[in-house]
């Protein structure tokens, strides 16, 4: 016979309606009509809220839960968990949560656990999960503690995503900047990867053999060598369930230097997020190895040139410049857009500076442009520049968020990775999005950086003045704003660092107006000529500061069908 109060209590909830089909008279609780008023009140509370709630009652800790709690049971535990003993349903984690139940039942005191690691088997495999939850006592009609109320939220994705972001940051921070041999390069990188909860195995193969240079974690499985050989033959990254194999090419030719293997842990599902993380991580390490090899080649060439030169003091200057150029690479080609970049060091002091630029396509095909300037002009600033550039690139590529969201995540990473004041910088991130016709939208966000200048197809120029947000690295919780402007065919967008306009004799506003005037009428000039026009029109012979410039032009309707 149906219980009227139980029918009413379970009516708002899909799980509650399933609970009506449970044979409660076969459980220690008995038929719902016999339940005490205190239990009835707790049941009404459980099924009336959308927040995840689970409760247990009686000597067997019989389970009752609502819709919000359903997903926490995975694919295997529901609906059998309704009316079942908690110890049976959560047997694999009872050593972790059982004492918490006992504490509430014996003392009547509530518990609070934050991001507690629980190795659950709720969907057919042992799964790494994290939960924040509170156990509270439930009293019977006589005031005795006879049950426990669990208000919980699963934080697995937040914990895992933060851990992966930290791992990427630690890898960036430890990547060697010089190259002796593969083992020397791999040692600090694999040391970091060995501490990651997402990497079950990491190995670096020398192409001669092939043989393992260095490895960490679990033993090699038979499928690994076959994937390495496929990567060597094809020259392409191999992504198979639970593993990414990345061939690493030389920075100065197409020779494959090594092959990196990253294997996933079995306690997390091999989903799209996991694949993206492993691909970004392998690409980061591969790019770093390629760059340090290229730097070594450049360094050796410069050392030879310096040995033949009477000006020995210029050798260190040229090496620093070569290192800077190794980081600030040429942009890729984009459909319908022409992008030109330029970096010019200060004439008086050519230590590696903090100016940087970047241009890349995100996974959804949008073009992202970045320009920034780390505070300072020493090696510390250069290291921070490399870390910030890599963070902006990795987060911008992976998240596909708007520029403001990208900068907010970079701020959070600076704080979470404790990069400190060295990572204080101005930066501007712009995302060029294709519209429904020839007109594109440029969406940008500025962290204290100088305003872009837009040269329209008719030759007029406009300073895109906005109220800037805070510099990167100053406040990890600062909200950031997006701005937008149309980029029509033939329009040219110019991004630059302060070395192009700042002087000791003229105000900033006047120099901005001067730059806009210099750029007027350059709409028909090649972008390389636009760069030279800006430099010659704004700078004297001696440059006091580094200068970085990024210029993008939208193709005209005629040119959009041709290759740049």
Describe this structure in words.
It is a single chain. The longest helix is centred in the middle third of the chain and has 36 residues, at 272-307. The protein has helices spanning 4-10, 14-19, 37-48, 67-70, 86-89, 94-107, 156-174, 182-193, 222-234, 272-307, 313-327, 379-399, 403-416, 508-519, 527-538, and strands spanning 53-57, 62-65, 111-120, 127-139, 145-154, 199-206, 211-217, 238-240, 243-249, 256-264, 337-344, 355-361, 367-374, 425-434, 440-447, 453-455, 461-463, 483-487, 492-496, 547-554. Helix 1 runs parallel beside helix 3 (37-48), helix 7 packs parallel to helix 10 (272-307) and helix 14 (508-519) packs antiparallel against helix 15. Helices cover 36% and strands 25% of the residues.
Number of strands: 20
- How does the helix and strand content classify structurally? alpha+beta
Radius of gyration, whole Å: 30 Å
Q: Report the helical percentage.
A: 25-40%
Instruction: Report the span from N to C terminus.
Output: 79 Å
**Assembly category:** single chain
The shape, in one word, is elongated
How many strands, which pairing sense, and closed or not: the largest β-sheet?
A: 5 strands, antiparallel
Average pLDDT for all residues: 88
Would you identify the regions where 5 or more consecutive residues have pLDDT less than 50? 312-317, 559-564
Q: How much β-strand is present in the residues?
A: 25-35%
* Strand arrangement, major sheet: 2-1-5-4-3
Question: What is the count of DSSP helices, taking H or I runs of 4+ residues?
Answer: 15
């Amino acid at each position: 016979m149906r219980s009227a109060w139980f029918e009413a209590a379970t009516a708002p909830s899909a799980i509650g309606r399933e609970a009506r089909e449970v044979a409660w008279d076969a459980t220690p609780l008995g038929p719902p009509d016999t339940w005490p008023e205190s239990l009835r009140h707790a049941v009404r509370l459980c099924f009336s809220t959308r927040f995840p709630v689970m409760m247990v009652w009686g000597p067997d800790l019989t389970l009752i839960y609502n819709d919000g709690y359903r997903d926490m049971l995975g694919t295997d535990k529901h609906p059998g968990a309704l009316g079942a003993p908690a110890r049976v349903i959560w047997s694999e984690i009872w050593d972790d949560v059982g004492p918490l139940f006992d504490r509430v039942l014996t003392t009547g005191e509530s518990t609070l656990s934050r991001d507690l690691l629980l190795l659950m088997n709720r969907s057919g495999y042992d799964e790494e999960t994290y939960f924040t939850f509170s156990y509270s006592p439930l009293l019977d009609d006589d005031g005795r503690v006879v049950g426990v109320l669990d208000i919980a939220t699963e934080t697995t994705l937040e914990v895992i995503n933060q851990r992966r972001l930290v791992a990427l940051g630690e890898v960036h921070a430890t990547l060697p900047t010089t190259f002796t041999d593969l083992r020397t390069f791999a040692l600090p990188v694999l040391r970091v990867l060995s501490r990651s909860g997402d990497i079950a195995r990491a190995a670096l193969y020398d192409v001669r053999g092939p043989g393992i240079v260095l490895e960490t974690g679990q033993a090699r499985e038979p499928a690994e060598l076959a994937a390495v050989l496929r990567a060597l033959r094809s020259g392409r990254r191999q992504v198979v369930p639970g593993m990414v194999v990345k061939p690493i090419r030389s920075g100065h030719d197409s020779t494959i230097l090594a092959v990196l293997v990253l294997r996933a842990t079995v306690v997390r599902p091999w989903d799209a997020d996991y694949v993206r993380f492993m691909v970004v991580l392998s690409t980061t390490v591969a790019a770093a190895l390629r760059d340090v090899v290229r730097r070594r080649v450049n360094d050796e060439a410069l050392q030879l040139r310096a040995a033949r030169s009477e000006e020995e003091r210029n050798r260190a200057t040229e090496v620093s410049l070569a290192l800077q150029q190794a980081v600030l690479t040429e942009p890729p080609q984009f459909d319908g857009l022409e992008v030109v970049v330029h970096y010019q060091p200060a004439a008086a002091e050519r230590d590696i500076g903090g100016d940087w630029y970047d241009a890349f396509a995100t996974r959804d095909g949008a073009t992202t442009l970045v320009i920034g300037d780390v505070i300072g002009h020493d090696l510390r600033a250069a290291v921070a520049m490399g870390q910030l550039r890599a963070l902006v690139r990795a987060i911008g590529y992976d998240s596909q968020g708007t520029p403001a969201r990208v900068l907010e995540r970079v701020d959070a990473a600076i704080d979470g990775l404790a990069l400190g004041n060295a990572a204080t910088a101005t930066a501007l991130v712009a995302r060029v999005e294709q519209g429904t016709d020839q007109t594109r939208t440029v969406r940008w966000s500025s962290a204290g950086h100088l305003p872009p200048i837009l040269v329209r197809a008719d030759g007029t120029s406009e300073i895109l003045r906005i109220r800037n947000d805070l510099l990167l690295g100053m406040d990890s919780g600062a909200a950031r704003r997006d701005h937008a402007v149309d980029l029509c065919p033939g329009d040219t967008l110019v991004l630059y660092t302060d070395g192009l306009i700042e002087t000791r004799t003229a105000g900033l506003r006047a120099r901005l107006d001067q730059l806009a005037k210099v750029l007027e009428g350059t709409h028909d000039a090649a972008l390389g000529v636009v760069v030279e026009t800006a430099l010659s029109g704004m700078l004297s012979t001696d440059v006091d500061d580094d200068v970085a410039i990024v210029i993008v032009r939208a193709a005209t309707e005629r040119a959009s069908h041709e290759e740049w």
